[in-house]
Amino acid sequence: MWKDVIKSIHNTNYSKLLLQAPIPGAATTWTQIVNHCVKDNRLQDIMNEQSLVLIGNGKKTMFWLDCWINNSCLAEHFPNLFQLSNEKEASIDKMRMWEGYEWIWVFSWIRPLRGRNIGLLDQLYAILSIVHMDKDEEDRLIWKDNKSGRFSVKSLCVLLSPEPSTNNGFSFVGIWKGIVPLKVEIFCWMAIINIINTRCMLVQIGILDSSESNCPICLVEEESVDHILLHCHKHRLIWSKIIKWWGLVWCCPKSFSDM
Ligand SMILES: [Zn+2]
Question: Residue 143 belongs to what H/E stretch?
Answer without folding.
Answer: strand 140-143
